[in-house]
Every structure is written in C-alpha cells, then in structure tokens.
Amino acid sequence: MKPTLQAVADAVGVSRSTVSNAYSRPDQLSSALRERILDAARQLGYPGPNPTARSLRRGFVGSIGVLFTSQLSYAFTDPFAVRFLAGVGAAAERHGTSMLLVPLPPAQTDARRAVENAAVDGFCVYCVADEEWALDVIRQRGLPFVSTAARDDAGPDERFVGIDERAAARGVAAHVAGLGHRRVALLADSVLLDAPAGPLTLSGVHEVGHPTTRGRLTGFADAFAEVGVEWAELTLLNARSNSREAAAAAVAGLFDRPTPPTAVLAGSDVLALGVLDALAERPAGRRPPVSVTGFDDVPEAAAAGLTTVRQPAEEKGRIAAELLLDPPVDAAAGHVLLPTALVVRASTGPVPRS
Amino acid sequence: MKPTLQAVADAVGVSRSTVSNAYSRPDQLSSALRERILDAARQLGYPGPNPTARSLRRGFVGSIGVLFTSQLSYAFTDPFAVRFLAGVGAAAERHGTSMLLVPLPPAQTDARRAVENAAVDGFCVYCVADEEWALDVIRQRGLPFVSTAARDDAGPDERFVGIDERAAARGVAAHVAGLGHRRVALLADSVLLDAPAGPLTLSGVHEVGHPTTRGRLTGFADAFAEVGVEWAELTLLNARSNSREAAAAAVAGLFDRPTPPTAVLAGSDVLALGVLDALAERPAGRRPPVSVTGFDDVPEAAAAGLTTVRQPAEEKGRIAAELLLDPPVDAAAGHVLLPTALVVRASTGPVPRS
DNA sequence: GATCCAGTCTGTATCGATTCAGAGACTAGC
DNA sequence: GCTAGTCTCTGAATCGATACAGACTGGATC
Known about the structure:
By secondary structure, chain A is of the alpha/beta class. The first copy, chain A, has helices at residues 5-12, 16-24, 31-44, 51-58, 72-75, 79-95, 108-117, 132-141, 165-178, 211-226, 244-250, 269-281, 299-304, 313-325; strands at 63-68, 98-102, 123-126, 145-147, 159-163, 184-189, 198-200, 235-239, 263-266, 291-293, 308-310, 335-338, 341-343. Chain A is built from 14 helices and 13 strands. In chain A, strand 9, helix 12 and strand 10 form a beta-alpha-beta unit.
C-alpha cells in the first residue's frame, strides 16, 4: 500500500500536521524541516496528499462539471459544443480548475445518480433538453451552476449566459422572408420527445419542449407572421438528433411534394448542412433551388456558404465557466446576453419565379 | 448547511449505517424502512451521500483523467484530439465513469501538482510531449495509466494503444519518393523544445524529443534513405505549435529559395493544411506545384484533398479508456497496435520536370 | 424444546487528510 | 529582568461517509 501522510510523519518524527503543512503551507515551518520532510516522503514513495481526502476536509474539489443533454460521445461530434468546451477549458485553465465531463445514462434514475455523484464544485449546464430534473438535483446539492438556456422560471440568483434566441432567429427568418419566400419549412431536432423524423403538426410553438429550440422556432414564426404567413402554414420538420444524417432523413421526400418549400430554416448549422447534403445527393435535374439557413456559424458553415446566425461559441463557454468560478457580486451581472449577427452567404437567394 | 447522512439517521431514529445502506445497498434493509428513510431525506433536503466522502471511504473515484501535452483549450482545436476524446467519452459512458480533463499549467512544478491533485482512478495520457515527468507522478501515485505514445522504456505491464508511427510515416514518404521527389522538406511541431519557427539543423533524428514526432520523422527519413537521399539533404522545418497558422509561418520563405523543395511531408494533417493555406495565399503566378502530405486523416483532410495516413482516432480513444477501465488479464493484450492506411488524394503528384 | 438460519439493524473502526487553538522556545525592547 | 511578540511545531477535532463483525428477532427444522 502507498504510505500515508502519517507514515511520513512517523518516519521523520514529527506530527501529521507538520507534514501537511510542508505540502500546503510552507510558511508554517522552517525550510530545513520542510526539506527533511520532503526528502523522507520521496524516500518512502509518498505521492503527496491524497486528493480525495484533501477535498473532503477542505470542502471543495477544484473541478467543475459540464453537463450535456445528450450522449457525451455526441457532444464531441457537434462543432458548436466543441467550441463551447474549448471556452470552458480556457477559463478552467486560467483558474487551475479541472473539468469533469459527466456522461448521463439514458435511464433517468441513473442520470440523477450521475449528477448526484459527481465530485465537482459547480456545473456548467449546456443546453440540456428538458434539463429541469438536472437543475433540481444540482440545487438540492446546494451547488452553483450556470445555464446556457434561458428558462422562464429561473431564480434571480441563477446565473446564465446565452443569446436572445428568439430575436436572433427572427433576424435570419426575416432575411429569408425578405427574399420573398412564403412556402417555408422549419427544421429542428427533438421538437417533441420521441417524435418520429419528418413532418410534425403542432398546434403552436409553445408545445416544443426544449427551451432553445422553442426560442428559435418562435423567432422564425414571428418573422413569417409579420409577412402574413401563419404558424399552420409553415411545415415543421423533426430531426431525431442534431446531426447531418438525421437532418437528411428528416427532409426525405420533402422536395418531391407537389408544392415543395422554397426555403428551409434549420435550428442549427449541423442540421442545415444535412439539408444541403440531402440536396446535393439528388440528381442534378431534380435539385430545386432551395434556400437554406443554419444557426451558430460553426467553422464548417463558412466553407459550405451557409447563411446563418453567428453566436460566439467559445466566448459562451468561457463566460459560463467564469460566472461559475468567480461569481459576480452583482446578481444582474450573472445574466449575460451575448451578441449575435446575421451572416448572409450563398445558401440563400430570392425565391424563384415559377 | 446541507444535512448529512447522520442528520437523516437522527431524524428517522436509525443508525448511520442503515441510512448509508438505504442508498448503496438496498438489499440490506426492509423496503419499508428504506422508503421511510428516503422520505425523511427528501424532507430534510439531504442531497444523497457526499461524493467526496464516499470516494475516500470506498477507495475509488469513478472517473478517469485525460492528460494533454498542451493547453487544454488547444486540445479542442485539434480535430484529431477531439476525435480521440470522443472515443474516450464513448467508453467512459459505457462504464458509467466520468472524464476529468486536467489542464497543465505552464510551469512544471505547478503541472506536477495538477497531476498529483487530480481525483481520478487512472489516466489516459494523450501524447504528452516530454511526458516522462507526468508518467513518473502517475506511477508514484500508484495509478494505472494508458499511454498513446510508444516509449522505449515502457515497463512490461504498462498499457499502450497506438500505431507504428515509423512504419506508417515510411509508407507515405515512400509514396512521395515513388513520385520522384528528392528535394523534400519535413515539417513537424515541437521538434526541439523552444526551437524557433522554420528551418532547423539536426545531426540526426534521434535528437527529436517528442517520441511521436521522432517516430514519424524517422519513418520519413527511412523512405528517403532507401532512394539515396540522406538525412542531411532533407530540409527540416519546425512549427511552433500544431496549428495551421504555425505551419504557414514555418514554411515562410521556403518556396522562394533558389531550389525550393518539390514536396513537404508534414507530421500532422493540421500542419499540412497550414502549408496548403500558405501556398494558396501566394499569387497564382508564383504558386509552385508542391506535393504535400499530412498525417491522421482528420475530417478536414478529405475536403482539402490531402494525401495522408489514416489512423483510427476515435478507436484509439475508446481503446485507451477500455484498457484503463477493464485491464486485460494478459499483459500482452495491454499493448494494442492499430492499423494505418495510406490515403492518396490530389495533394501529391509526380515531381514536375523543370 | 433446542438449534439453526435468514433477515434486519447497530456500533465501531476507518478512509487520509486539514484546521486551529495553543504550547514552547527564542529574540527584542524597555 | 520582565513582557511582548515571533517562529515552530503539536494534538485533538473534524470532514462525511462505508465496511464489517456482530446482536437481535422470529420462524422453520428436527
């Protein structure tokens, strides 16, 4: 077995406290003794204070948790999530804090346990769809957290960093509407829990569970309502996940309808790229000139010429971690709204006259 | 303050052990009592057993550490590292284990501390340049680890997953040599600690510190030695980091030499893409037809038409985590060599006759 | 009626450190 | 020479749980 702090103390003939001080508070003992202790420790193969025991006694861990909606392995396939993580990592780095990525098992009971058992000082909650249960567990544990999805029932002291989803979405939709498009499809992932891929009918946008998706779809609807296109006239498409493949599957058959949409507004760049994939796969003769928009402006979007909404991904992660690591004294400062910008590229154009 | 397990015990009028059992070993008490305890816990706002205390007593943490050479925030910009992380994440997910990403401060003393203080059950060590000190700390702590860089002094019980860097590099270099190229530049990052960007003279490849880089450069040299081009005739270029920008900086001026190389072999796709960037930025008239190769076959390589060596990134991460999470009984099985393949695309071509 | 056993629950030791009040020794100042 | 102050170091209390060896109960077995 590895020697403990006590073993070192015995070897040198000092008290446990003194050995502890040799590691954590060098100013509390003479440097001669300190050297003697460190030497003995080296000799014995003592690996330094046990991190777990130290955390227990000190009352904090020195790492922050990052919680993802989906499977952890999916998170790495989503370029936006990766940029977000990079931001969290940069901030964690500066604070000498580690990041704990906690995978959530599919069963909710197990997922609760996972959040309960995470040894962290706080959480960055990345857009967990139907995240309420997770926030409950975190609150129950008395841990601080920062959420990236605006929630209606957020307490005044709850920290948040994100964008005005609705306004941003409205912006890109207004651009498409301005180009003359009126037959439009909206594409989003997990519109409803366990909904099949493809067209979906909802009485209204309020039925959408995921707050971020709801915000974006609401913004889309806003812009079209303004030009006289009601919610019921919009085609709503569900993707089973936020991936190009799922998006391609969701638009299957869409362009073979008698009156296909002339534009598809996607809830993320990844989905939009999937739509472009689906279009590219059609034989050249049957490739309608559909306008497509995304959301996020991930690196791939520029290469694909995708019109989209830019939001600062890395910044979001960085600020999330910073709000967690040194909380602003002013509660209002704990609520950060990031800027967005409409980025017009080649994937949108005027509606073709037929 | 949050109530402890003891508080719940007192409230129900049972012993602490029983409350502990209610959470961790439900078969050890009647379900009626268990319900009563869980109810009381809910009432009191008890968040469940403290993860840190539990880890201390149990002797394990339930999370594995991932160690990166470089800044944690850089890791997320490297597509290969991201795929690796995805693999680790997938395996961790299956085992119900969390991943701890430990940022290493620049100062070595601090970095040691960071590794010493990480509350984990083991480490996946991702290609830490000059990683020896880190492995020492891990060994000292008595923790298991899996390395992704082959080391000459690896103990027989030390686990490893990776590729035959030298053979793979030799393969792609042989392809380039086969195309007739003889004036060739080799580009790698951190060839020597703190070397400047650009040309570098080394008496031999053995001087290269980073084992992965050394392996690849050796393979390149092997292939050219076979066609009669000696090490001293090869141009060695150092990039300050593994990024497109650094690569572009490293090849500055290279193509304006009196006898510029006709091919550049890069130690990674990211570097190779940087070389292509640099070439693309030159005015069309002064853009020599240079062959460029990468290494890794990251997603971006295909789009850029880059000739490269494919290695299974996600698989590497997955296996690394699995070797850690359930160690093979057979020591030989703890040493996994993954397959590689030469992927020829448009970025290489026959040497132009001048 | 004694014995055994399974099912529940308790008590104590333990995991490996940090903290903090205070004990001694020594120096300085008056 | 005495008081105050500074440096070092010690001891006991504490962080919040889990493990394990029993104690007790009630029923089945012979």
